[in-house]
Design brief:
mainly alpha; two-stranded antiparallel sheet; two-stranded parallel ribbon; 10 helices; 8 strands; 65% helix; 7% strand; globular
Length: 310
């Protein structure tokens, strides 16, 4: 595709070298979140076992008053929902790692936006699963509902794909999720789309959930999620710049990058914090890697040079 800008490309090599010097510490800080979460899992698991006054332990005791078809709920029911929430936080941390892996020259702005949106949604969903003071029944309802929703969505996506083996596996997962719900005595109904869902569960839309999380942290960057969604859905303004009246490929800069990545970082930090509070794990150093990453984003935002292309 022709580039109408006079002299474009003459200084790309030096620009790329300078930009890579800016991005290198940011890449490392992003990828370090994944390593940090992995190292923190041992502390979190120790708290599950040792901290008797945690919200988790209180909910385990409360579960003894809940009755399913085969009798009273047990500790296992609560630990199963903890696994769902913990894996969701872990998955979000891995997405930050993946964003870090994307930040090599040339940077794909579309891929950073798309992955940033996914990370933000995943962290917001974990944040919702770990909401304080909702009680053991509501928390288990949310966790089982998320697994059932995901399993049914996978079956729906594969039904007409021709991938017979994958469809069989997905249907097996969906049956298992449904059996889990029935085992706990959770009522199931069929929605307008023909999906089995949990009766009584209000599953928030991603947009509202992300806005709630953003508002809880001060409300900054409220519009970024919609911006990232537009990029994910292919809006041309995320690909096209206009220079002297002519369309040109958009080139992103570090300030843009900081604006894009900051909300997912904050969301993962908030979800991680809720997970730690739920199991009763306290560590003053736990969130230093997130703070260091946010400082790198502040530093990155001050740099005014291009860092990539489409």
């Amino acid at each position: 595709m022709p580039n109408r800008r006079s002299g474009a490309g003459e200084h790309l090599s030096s620009e790329s070298e300078n930009a890579d010097a800016v991005l290198a510490p940011l890449r490392e800080a992003l990828m370090d979140i994944r390593r940090h979460f992995e190292s923190d899992k041992e502390r979190l698991n120790n708290s599950v076992v040792r901290v008797s006054s945690s919200p988790l332990r209180r909910e385990i005791r409360a579960a003894e008053a809940e009755v399913g078809p085969i009798g009273y709920w047990t500790e296992e029911a609560v630990l199963d929902e903890l696994v769902v929430a913990g894996l969701t936080v872990e998955g979000a941390s891995y997405h930050l790692y993946s964003i870090g892996r994307l930040l090599f020259i040339p940077v794909s702005c579309r891929s950073v936006q798309t992955l940033g949106r996914t990370c933000l949604e995943m962290a917001a969903r974990a944040w919702w699963l770990l909401e304080p003071d909702i009680g053991v029944r509501e928390r288990i309802l949310r966790s089982v509902g998320e697994v059932l929703y995901g399993a049914r969505a996978e079956v729906h996506a594969l039904r007409d794909s021709g991938a017979a083996e994958l469809l069989v596996r997905a249907e097996h997962k969906a049956r298992d999720a449904l059996e889990w719900a029935k085992y706990l005595g959770l009522a199931v109904r069929v929605d307008k789309k023909g999906f089995e869902i949990l009766d009584g569960l209000v599953r928030p839309k991603a947009t509202g959930l992300v806005n709630d999380l953003v508002a809880s942290t001060g409300g900054k960057s409220r519009g970024v999620y919609g911006w990232l969604s537009a990029a994910t859905h292919g809006a041309p303004f995320h690909l096209v710049d206009v220079v002297n009246g002519h369309p040109q490929p958009l080139r992103i800069n570090p300030e843009w990058l900081a604006l894009t990545v900051r909300p997912p970082v904050i969301a993962v930090r908030e979800a991680h914090q809720r997970l730690a509070c739920y199991v009763g794990s306290r560590s003053s150093a736990r969130f230093e890697p997130y703070d260091r990453l946010l400082r790198e984003l502040d530093r990155c935002a001050e740099v005014k040079l291009p860092v990539g292309v489409l």
